[in-house]
Protein backbone atom coordinates (compact mmCIF):
# COMPACT_ATOMS: atom_id res chain seq x y z
CA UNK A 1 0.00 0.00 0.00
CA UNK A 2 1.34 3.43 -0.85
CA UNK A 3 1.99 5.90 1.97
CA UNK A 4 -0.91 8.13 0.84
CA UNK A 5 -3.40 5.26 1.16
CA UNK A 6 -1.88 4.24 4.47
CA UNK A 7 -2.41 7.78 5.81
CA UNK A 8 -6.10 7.65 4.87
CA UNK A 9 -6.61 4.45 6.87
CA UNK A 10 -4.39 5.64 9.73
CA UNK A 11 -6.42 8.84 10.03
CA UNK A 12 -9.72 6.92 10.02
CA UNK A 13 -8.43 4.44 12.58
CA UNK A 14 -7.16 7.25 14.81
CA UNK A 15 -10.46 9.14 14.66
CA UNK A 16 -12.48 6.00 15.40
CA UNK A 17 -10.16 5.12 18.26
CA UNK A 18 -10.55 8.62 19.67
CA UNK A 19 -14.35 8.23 19.63
CA UNK A 20 -14.10 4.89 21.45
CA UNK A 21 -11.69 6.32 24.03
CA UNK A 22 -14.00 9.27 24.58
CA UNK A 23 -16.99 6.97 25.08
CA UNK A 24 -15.09 4.65 27.42
CA UNK A 25 -13.87 7.63 29.48
CA UNK A 26 -17.41 9.03 29.73
CA UNK A 27 -18.60 5.68 31.03
CA UNK A 28 -15.61 5.13 33.30
CA UNK A 29 -14.58 1.98 31.45
CA UNK A 30 -11.11 0.78 30.51
CA UNK A 31 -12.27 -1.88 28.06
CA UNK A 32 -12.28 -0.67 24.43
CA UNK A 33 -14.12 -3.82 23.31
CA UNK A 34 -16.99 -3.04 25.69
CA UNK A 35 -17.07 0.55 24.44
CA UNK A 36 -17.29 -0.71 20.85
CA UNK A 37 -20.13 -3.10 21.80
CA UNK A 38 -22.00 -0.23 23.44
CA UNK A 39 -21.48 2.07 20.47
CA UNK A 40 -22.54 -0.62 18.01
CA UNK A 41 -25.68 -1.58 19.90
CA UNK A 42 -26.91 1.99 20.36
CA UNK A 43 -26.04 2.96 16.78
CA UNK A 44 -27.91 -0.06 15.39
CA UNK A 45 -31.01 0.65 17.49
CA UNK A 46 -30.93 4.30 16.40
CA UNK A 47 -30.25 3.49 12.74
CA UNK A 48 -33.16 1.04 12.64
CA UNK A 49 -35.54 3.58 14.22
CA UNK A 50 -34.71 6.32 11.71
CA UNK A 51 -36.17 6.64 8.21
CA UNK A 52 -33.55 5.30 5.76
CA UNK A 53 -32.70 8.72 4.33
CA UNK A 54 -32.11 10.14 7.81
CA UNK A 55 -30.06 7.09 8.81
CA UNK A 56 -27.84 7.67 5.77
CA UNK A 57 -27.54 11.40 6.54
CA UNK A 58 -26.32 10.63 10.05
CA UNK A 59 -23.85 8.06 8.72
CA UNK A 60 -22.27 10.68 6.47
CA UNK A 61 -20.84 12.38 9.57
CA UNK A 62 -19.38 9.27 11.21
CA UNK A 63 -15.72 8.26 10.91
CA UNK A 64 -15.30 5.67 8.14
CA UNK A 65 -14.65 2.72 10.43
CA UNK A 66 -17.56 3.59 12.73
CA UNK A 67 -19.70 4.06 9.63
CA UNK A 68 -18.89 0.45 8.72
CA UNK A 69 -20.01 -0.69 12.18
CA UNK A 70 -23.16 1.43 11.83
CA UNK A 71 -24.14 -0.07 8.47
CA UNK A 72 -23.16 -3.67 9.32
CA UNK A 73 -26.22 -5.89 8.86
CA UNK A 74 -28.56 -3.04 7.91
CA UNK A 75 -31.72 -3.82 5.94
CA UNK A 76 -33.15 -0.42 4.96
CA UNK A 77 -36.32 -2.05 3.63
CA UNK A 78 -37.14 -3.13 7.21
CA UNK A 79 -36.86 0.38 8.64
CA UNK A 80 -37.93 2.43 10.39
CA UNK A 81 -38.87 0.14 13.25
CA UNK A 82 -41.41 2.05 15.32
CA UNK A 83 -40.07 1.91 18.87
CA UNK A 84 -42.42 4.40 20.53
CA UNK A 85 -41.09 4.50 24.08
CA UNK A 86 -37.68 4.89 25.60
CA UNK A 87 -38.06 1.49 27.25
CA UNK A 88 -38.72 -0.21 23.89
CA UNK A 89 -35.62 1.47 22.46
CA UNK A 90 -33.48 0.52 25.47
CA UNK A 91 -34.72 -3.08 25.24
CA UNK A 92 -33.40 -3.19 21.66
CA UNK A 93 -30.05 -1.75 22.78
CA UNK A 94 -29.68 -4.40 25.50
CA UNK A 95 -31.04 -7.33 23.43
CA UNK A 96 -27.64 -8.70 22.27
CA UNK A 97 -26.30 -8.85 25.83
CA UNK A 98 -26.96 -11.11 28.79
CA UNK A 99 -25.06 -9.41 31.62
CA UNK A 100 -22.81 -6.49 32.45
CA UNK A 101 -23.21 -2.73 32.17
CA UNK A 102 -24.87 -2.94 28.77
CA UNK A 103 -27.77 -4.68 30.53
CA UNK A 104 -27.73 -3.04 33.94
CA UNK A 105 -26.97 0.51 32.75
CA UNK A 106 -28.56 0.63 29.31
CA UNK A 107 -29.99 4.11 29.67
CA UNK A 108 -26.69 5.58 30.93
CA UNK A 109 -24.82 3.87 28.07
CA UNK A 110 -27.35 5.12 25.52
CA UNK A 111 -27.13 8.68 26.82
CA UNK A 112 -23.33 8.50 26.68
CA UNK A 113 -23.42 7.40 23.02
CA UNK A 114 -25.92 10.14 22.19
CA UNK A 115 -23.67 12.68 23.94
CA UNK A 116 -20.70 11.41 21.92
CA UNK A 117 -22.67 11.85 18.70
CA UNK A 118 -23.81 15.30 19.80
CA UNK A 119 -20.17 16.35 20.28
CA UNK A 120 -19.10 15.24 16.81
CA UNK A 121 -22.13 15.58 14.54
CA UNK A 122 -23.51 18.94 13.43
CA UNK A 123 -26.33 20.48 15.43
CA UNK A 124 -28.51 20.49 12.30
CA UNK A 125 -28.12 16.77 11.79
CA UNK A 126 -28.70 16.00 15.47
CA UNK A 127 -31.82 18.18 15.25
CA UNK A 128 -32.98 16.17 12.24
CA UNK A 129 -32.34 12.88 14.05
CA UNK A 130 -34.11 14.03 17.21
CA UNK A 131 -36.98 15.37 15.10
CA UNK A 132 -37.41 11.91 13.55
CA UNK A 133 -37.89 10.31 16.97
CA UNK A 134 -40.87 10.24 19.33
CA UNK A 135 -40.51 12.79 22.15
CA UNK A 136 -39.69 10.14 24.76
CA UNK A 137 -36.71 8.95 22.68
CA UNK A 138 -35.59 12.45 21.77
CA UNK A 139 -35.36 13.20 25.51
CA UNK A 140 -32.49 10.69 25.82
CA UNK A 141 -30.30 13.16 23.88
CA UNK A 142 -28.50 15.99 25.66
CA UNK A 143 -30.30 19.32 25.44
CA UNK A 144 -29.04 21.63 22.70
CA UNK A 145 -26.92 18.88 21.20
CA UNK A 146 -24.84 18.95 18.04
CA UNK A 147 -21.68 20.80 17.08
CA UNK A 148 -21.86 24.03 15.10
Give a description of the structure:
This protein has one domain: Globin-like (Orthogonal Bundle), CATH 1.10.490.110. The longest helix has 25 residues, at 3-27. Helix 1 crosses helix 2, helix 2 packs across helix 5 (86-94) and helix 3 packs antiparallel against helix 8. The chain is globular, with a radius of gyration of 15 Å. It is mostly helical and 148 residues long. It is built from nine helices and no strands. The N and C termini lie far apart (36 Å).
Total helical segments:
9
Helix content percent band: 55-70%
Give the strand tally.
0
N- to C-terminal separation? 36 Å
Coarse structural class? mainly alpha
Q: Write the CATH homologous superfamily.
A: Uncharacterized conserved protein DUF2267
The biggest beta sheet is recorded as:
none
Would you list the SSEs in sequence order as H and E?
A: HHHHHHHHH
Low-confidence stretches: none
Number of domains: 1
What is the CATH fold-level name? Globin-like
Task: Please state roughly what percent of the residues sit in beta strands, choosing from under 5%, 5-15%, 15-25%, 25-35%, 35-45% or over 45%.
Answer: under 5%
CATH class: Mainly Alpha
Choose one word for the global shape: globular
Oligomeric composition of the shown chains: single chain
- Rg, Cα atoms, Å: 15 Å
Give a quick precis of the structure.
The chain is mainly α and 148 residues long. 68% of the residues lie in helices and 0% in strands.
Summary keywords:
148 residues; Globin-like; 9 helices; 68% helix; globular
